[in-house]
Amino acid sequence: MAGAWQPLTGASHQVALEILLDGPLSRAELSKRVRLSPGSLTRLTKPMLESGLLVEVTAGQSDPRVGRPSQPLDIVPTAHHFVGIKLTGDTAVGVLTTLRAEVIATEERKLPDHAPESVASTITTLAESLAQGASIDGISGIGISLGGQVVERATVRWGMFLDWEEVPLGDLLRARTDVPAVVANDITALTEATHWFGAGRGVSRFCLLTIGAGIGYGLVVHDKLVDSGDASLGLIGHHPLIAGGPRCDRGHEGCASALLTTDAVVTQVGEVLGRAVGYEEALDLAAQGDDGAKRVIDRAGFALGKLVAAAANLTLPERIVIGGEGVRLVEVAHDALLDGLHVDRHPAATDPELVLLDPDFSEWARGAAVIAIQTFVLGS
Predict the structure, then answer these.
(1) Which of 16, 184, 282, 290 is most open to solvent, judged by the fewest CB atoms within 10 Å of its CB?
(2) pLDDT tops 70 at residue 206
(3) Predicted confidence (pLDDT) per residue in 207-224, tens digit
(4) Is residue 368 part of a domain?
(5) CB neighbours of 201 closer than 8 A, spacing ≥ 6?
(6) What does pTM read for this prediction?
(7) Is residue 1 part of a domain?
């Protein structure tokens, strides 16, 4: 396998990380980023080139200081592959990625049940199938993400959609595969994917809001994920938004979970119409002007605008990224969202930049792969 990655320290680590995230980069740009002289950078990168960790790529523009074409440095993304798996209540969605989290294969499997042993077996079988289908030599890591609280990147203290408590998923996987595996909360994983390889790249301060089966929130400040033991508890799901609104299962009136989850939306539209509807149908009806559906969807959009305003007011992000399987709400209820945003913002405040993620579950699986990539690259 070309370019075996060994976690580095100091300036070598910074150089490798800069190239991984933003490469190819010229030596002049690298020198500026890591604050090293050209001579020191050459000495530092020589062993990295000899080991195959770094490569020189097609010559770029001429460097007038030396009178010859520059040779930017890059890594070989296909030198390592990773599997990311997002667990829902009934499905394991998997992706195979490169070292830069580029998705090269996807696969999905139903979970036979919620028994931890059978879920662990499904994970390992899915990882093997993805590797075999792509005809690669092997994988360097597996990342698993799920809704709930995860401790020490291995134990699911609480998994809401799998009805798990204190499940040692990391141990179960180690008993089934020799590939390093890491477990993470799904919002944490998606935030890190957005941070390293997505819409948050190059943004020092941004937040991620997700709407779907649950409501999620991730925050990056000074180019670093804000994390704590409570971050994976879904706390923002009970942020109050509309007084007198419907109640969630905990009795909170007009909170984010009661207004914005896909279940809340389809339940409320179904009650208005007097029949069961799916989420996409509810949005379609609202977009087509159905009065009952539009009232529910506009109220949800207004609530989402107030949630965006709260995030913008409290954390002053440069960008707000919105994802999850319910993200189409932003487009269908866009005017109502802006109304909700503006009612809780100062008139002189600029609207935050909003970026929407693809609602496909493969985005979440890619996030799980990024957690494995980070563990592999950073050695932690």
Answers:
(1) 290
(2) yes
(3) 999 999 999 999 999 989
(4) yes
(5) 21, 22, 194, 195
(6) 0.91
(7) no
